[in-house]
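Newbie here. four chains, one complex. Structure please?
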Amino acid sequence: MNNRVDESPLPDQGHDDSAAASELRMATFRLARRLRAQRAIDTMSDGQFAVLAALTVHGAHTLGQLADRERVSAPSMNRTVTLLENAGYISRTPDETDRRRVTIDLTDYGRRIVDETVRRRDAFVEEALAELTPEERETLARAATIMRKVADR
Amino acid sequence: MNNRVDESPLPDQGHDDSAAASELRMATFRLARRLRAQRAIDTMSDGQFAVLAALTVHGAHTLGQLADRERVSAPSMNRTVTLLENAGYISRTPDETDRRRVTIDLTDYGRRIVDETVRRRDAFVEEALAELTPEERETLARAATIMRKVADR
DNA sequence: TATTGTTATACTCTATAACTATA
DNA sequence: TATAGTTATAGAGTATAACAATA
């Protein structure tokens, strides 16, 4: 497992702002942990899936581009890429114009795994949303936008 | 780093429900990742801090209780506990009535580290919240409650 | 000479299996 | 015999340093 800091203690003397901040932080960790548990292939780590997702969203990458995007060292990414290649999820092809580079892209099988994982993760959230009131769903939809803004600031 | 699945691809033909689910999932991962980066002591892992937080919230534990709570094997938890003990954050004391057991609890120093870490994590959220409109803050406060409900269902 | 990818090596976190002490 | 904790060992993920091939 990767991260389980979802029971963080509250600050001692929480005035309103700090209480709100703690609540949001704890709720975020707890939900993230729950969502992360919904993986299509339990033997694939978050880091491995993140590479497949990056290739899906942003297309083919070189090794260095993947390492930069995932903020990981080149040797570490090389190892992950080798594992994904051996599992048949991605392909490595030498670059024609600059032969130091290799192009890394999804295989059809890798694409299928990504779809399956996304569908399963979304299925959990969709079912949960379906049990809420329309007002609650609206609140979460607005909150999602604000959360991204906060995370990216 | 632990988890970086914050760029998950959207489902192919997102109708409204599935789009809302994807947005919430992505926003949650992204914010969790950002918050996780705010650690007081960069050499302490999430797993180690989670143990300190559990002891703060729920009091002293035996090794097995900690392993169960964090959903980790006993040997793995034993290793984490040994590291935390060597760092001076926790104490191990043999149980008087059942001498197979050991009681694990925070030291004063460990308590201080928890407070510091919580304060730093909350500081980031508080600063971010301060830049929002009152309506946005209200939305996030309501969302936090709903998110916990979704995570715990 | 600089850049891209890879290999060598080492450290952390995780697990299962085996062991010790106690119930 | 069963249980709680620990030790032994191994695999995955991470990093830095050193190397090979290419620009």
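Moderator note: Chain B touches chain A through 72 residues (CB under 8 Å). Chain B is about 65% helix and 10% strand. Thread marked as resolved.
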